[in-house]
Write a structure and sequence with these properties.
The complex is a heterodimer of chains A (234) and B (34).
Chain A lengths: L2 H34 L16 H25 L2 H32 L8 H22 L4 H14 L2 H11 L20 H41 L1
Chain B lengths: L1 H31 L2
The chains are: A mainly alpha (234), B mainly alpha (34).
Chain lengths: 234, 34
């Protein structure tokens, strides 16, 4: 591990700790705002899933974009820390994507009457999940090889092409999708904007906190592995 | 009510458990690094 990785590790710790306090306060504000949010006249209480389902989707998208960004920086700079960031982004992204794919069907069961539909958005989301779950499997089975890191970086960059496609697929299918349209300004009912904003902010901070912590874990693992190699070589 | 509650409980439980696992691993690695 280089000196710059040691500095990065110290910085990550310094940023993560106050962020944890902010996250704890936001979770309280989030719980309160969802609890007091108005009940939808058509769907009833189940509509409150709106304050968790789209923010989880945005977190998944961010995770996958971070994987591509980390991979691109790794290919450009050759520094292992960027590869570790790509891994952290993929893992947190897959967790957010999994939760999005759990909360969505719960909402669907209560409103559409069934858990799943082979709708374009849902099908593409499942594909996106498989692409990044495969990325994690690839990284899990092949540890530390430079060739694997380079392959994973290219895979992660290509995989991220699915993100805009996933977001805009409803517009592409023009009304033939069962999934509701993407939210736009003014599409939320009265009193629903605030809890939606707090939900997005809370899950965004949770996402950043998870990525920083996961990145720190990966940097520490690499540092210990390097030390063990040096010990064996001595 | 139960559907919405289930969605929030699963999200909070999963993210809480994941954070706990990460913190535990970080502490273990930090103790080895001393």
């Amino acid at each position: 591990m280089s000196d710059s990785d040691g500095v990065l590790l110290a910085r990550l710790e310094r940023w993560r700790r106050p962020l944890g306090v902010v996250l704890a306060l936001l979770v309280l504000a989030y719980a309160l705002s969802v609890w007091t949010a108005p009940i939808d006249r058509v769907q009833g209480v189940i509509q409150k899933i709106l304050y968790v389902h789209p923010p989880l989707a945005y977190g998944a998208y961010l995770g996958f974009v971070l994987t591509a960004l980390g991979g691109a920086l790794y290919l450009w700079r050759g520094r292992d820390a960027w590869d570790h960031l790509a891994m952290a982004g993929a893992e947190v992204g897959v967790i957010f994507c999994t939760l999005m794919m759990v909360t969505g069907p719960i909402w669907a069961k209560g409103t559409w009457g069934h858990w799943w539909s082979w709708d374009p958005r849902l099908t593409l989301t499942l594909l996106l999940w498989f692409v990044y779950a495969s990325y994690l499997l690839l990284r899990g089975f092949t540890e530390g090889a430079e060739r694997t890191a380079r392959f994973a970086a290219i895979y992660g960059i290509l995989g991220t092409l699915l993100v805009p496609l996933n977001y805009f697929v409803i517009e592409l299918f023009q009304g033939r999708s069962m999934h509701p349209e993407n939210l736009s300004r003014g599409s939320l009912g009265s009193g629903m904007g605030w809890p939606f904003l707090v939900g997005n902010l809370t899950l965004f901070v949770a996402f950043v906190y998870c990525v920083l912590l996961r990145w720190e874990v990966e940097l520490r693992r690499a540092r210990l592995a390097l030390r063990a190699d040096a010990w064996e070589g001595a | 009510m139960s559907y919405a509650l289930a969605a929030y409980a699963i999200t909070a439980g999963t993210l809480g458990f994941y954070l706990w696992l990460l913190h535990r691993e970080r502490s273990r690695l930090a103790s080895l690094d001393r």
